[in-house]
Amino acid sequence: MPPIPHDLAAFLVEAKRRTYAGLDDEATVAAPLLAGSKQLEHRASPYAYRDIYFGTGFFVGQEAVSRNERVIWSMSYSGGVRAEITDRDTFLAIYKFLRQALLRVGVEEPYRGPRLFEQDGMAYCNRVEGGIDRFHGVETIARRDGTVLYELRYGGGMLL
Question: pLDDT by residue (tens digit) across 90-99?
Fold first, then answer.
């Protein structure tokens, strides 16, 4: 396996904060590569980050990081709010809370959000195994009473 660039984790944190988590409209590509998808991008030479996903309530997607025009890291993910949650205000509150958690991504585990984040009666929990070279995890959002509102599974790592 090629060596992991020392600044990859820092770039991932910056890219994630400047795209979905930060609601940066400038990161949204007007004409995505795949019809019906949302595509977010961030560049800081020599890196380029692209996140392409489909869906809203339940969604699937993939992030990829290129270095000098070669994809070196990727992560796929799928999940969303529980199917029985149909109330628009609840739905929006869950995703607003998710973005707050994702803004707290750190270089130690630059995949999703922190291990734990609590605010406004909700708790974000991220259980991850592995390192930046190969990892997988599950993130959940639950009410204080333990009712799970949202779940997402993800995995990825360095590409040979």
Answer: 999 999 999 9
Q: What's the length of the chain?
A: 160
- Please name the residues in contact with 71: beta carbons below 8 A apart, sequence gap of 6 or more: 64, 65, 159
Phi/psi at 98 (5° precision): -60, -45
Rounded to the nearest integer, the mean pLDDT of the chain is: 94
Q: Where are the beta strands (DSSP E) in 2-158?
A: 38-44, 47-55, 58-67, 70-81, 116-119, 122-131, 134-143, 148-158
Q: Which ranges in the chain belong to alpha helices (H)?
A: 8-17, 88-102
Task: Give the pair of three-digit tokens for residue 142.
Answer: 């639950």
- Residue 34: burial class (beta carbons within 10 Å; 0-12, 13-18, 19+): exposed
The two structure tokens encoding residue 23: 């609601």
Tens-place pLDDT, residues 94-149:
999 999 999 999 999 999 999 999 998 999 999 999 999 999 999 999 999 999 99
Give domain limits for the chain: 8-158
